[in-house]
Amino acid sequence: MVDTSKLVEELHAIIGAPFIQTLSPLETYQVDGQAPWAVVSPGDIDQLAEVLKLADREALAVAPWGGGTTTAMGHPPERLDIVLSLQRLSRVLEHEPADLTATVQAGITMADLRRQLASRGQCWPVDAPLPAAATLGGVLATNTSGPKRLLYGTGRDLLIGITVVHADGAISKAGGKVTKNVTGYDMMKLYVGSLGTLAVIAEATLKLRPVPANQQLAWATFGSRETAVEAAQRLLAGALLPNAIELINPSLTAFLRQSMHGAAGDIGWSLLVGIDGGEAAVDRQRREINVLSQACGASAWWTAMDDGQLWQVLLDRFRPQGGAQLQHVVARIGTVRTRVGAILDQLTELGRRLDMPMELCARVGNGLVYARMQLTGEAEQSARLAQMLTDIRQALTAERGYIVVETAPSAFKALFDCWGDVGPQVEVMAGLKQAFDPRRVLNPGRFIAHL
């Protein structure tokens, strides 16, 4: 039995009593129904290292915590003792506009990062859900990305250097502070997307971009899934350079129209296209997208300045919040671009057979499909959904595709593996976990194969 009172005294000595929470409402920090007995907020990287050193010594389970927007991702933890909040590590340490780089602490929110970089005409072009709460460290740890990954890539692509703190308190760095090619192993790739199970991301050096001079959004609605996919594929095959191409189903079209315009308008399969650059180039692309859409049978068409609001509403829709009351499953399906239409049809049929509200969004250029499925809470419905997703997963595996459940109630996670079988590489992943965190301190059990 852990003597928490003695450990709290040690934590007080490390970071100070005001930055340790041991009383209610710690339920705010629960992960799949498990609440910690302490929430600690170190003020610098050395304090963070000391906290982890203590946790490693006592074999405590630690959950790194940014804004709490992805706590529904992954398996339920094996155990949970301490939530390690990075909210005080939220500064831009260096910004070199001439080099298009910035070194930033991991606890900064995406909204704050955006504002500070925009004041000097630059941005880190990774769009994430719930930016007022989501932190840079959380975005990297989950490898979260948005529609504009089509042109700009993911956080993994836009990362130059990283500083992490390991489970035993050791501090290490990978990469550098300038954009250049290096030889040897790219250790940064290990930490991005590992859900905080190998180390805690403390700082990151980012590759920036100038804020585009002009940004516009085109929205075309079609009478069928087939014509919408045809338009998307023709757009991808052309010479244009959109920053985003999102294909959404009729129910999501209706939701976005209501959210953005307060009225339903034309409902159908819709293609959302983002374009940016110089004014002349943007105008030309907008005209060509219009011509292409009309040629494919678009029933409605409009364009507007892209202020980011529509993309944000779309992103937030697939990151439902609700804690213990969560009643949604959000799945990410990866496939080849030519199979996106077939996957959309399979998911549409799944929703019809289960009489389940289903919202679908496909990043056609990246071969990704997101599905937001609303549960009724009935055990039979959840069991049938789990079986149908299992059938789709098995077919995808044969094609080297995958299904990852990004959000789900704990009860559904007991029926369906959030990550799926990744094959022989799981042995390599298990070896890395053993080497980096042999006492299973960091997010134990939450990652692939319960690592």
Number of E strands:
19
Helix content: 25-40%
Low-confidence stretches: none
> Taking Cα atoms only, what radius of gyration do you get, to the nearest Å?
22 Å
Q: Please state the second-level CATH architecture of the largest domain.
A: 2-Layer Sandwich
Q: What's the structural domain tally? A: 3
Strand content: 15-25%
Question: SSE layout and pairings?
Answer:
Blueprint: H1 4-15, E1 20-21, E2 38-40, H2 45-58, E3 62-65, E4 82-85, E5 92-96, E6 101-105, H3 110-118, E7 122-123, H4 136-142, H5 149-152, E8 159-166, E9 171-175, H6 188-191, E10 199-207, E11 209-210, E12 214-222, H7 225-237, E13 244-248, H8 250-261, E14 269-277, H9 279-295, E15 300-305, H10 309-317, E16 328-334, H11 340-354, E17 358-363, E18 368-374, H12 379-398, E19 402-407, H13 410-413, H14 425-436
Parallel strand pairs: 2-4, 3-4
Antiparallel strand pairs: 1-2, 5-6, 6-10, 7-11, 8-9, 8-10, 12-14, 12-15, 13-14, 13-17, 16-18, 16-19, 17-18
Architecture overview:
The chain is α+β, with helices and mostly antiparallel strands. It has three domains: 1-211, Uridine Diphospho-n-acetylenolpyruvylglucosamine Reductase, domain 3 (2-Layer Sandwich), CATH 3.30.465; 214-315, Alpha-Beta Plaits; 318-425, 2-Layer Sandwich (Alpha-Beta Plaits). The chain is built from 14 helices and 19 strands. The strands form four sheets. The protein has an eight-stranded antiparallel sheet. A five-stranded antiparallel sheet has the order 5-6-10-8-9. Strands 1-2-4-3 form a four-stranded mixed sheet. The model has no long low-confidence stretch (mean pLDDT 93).
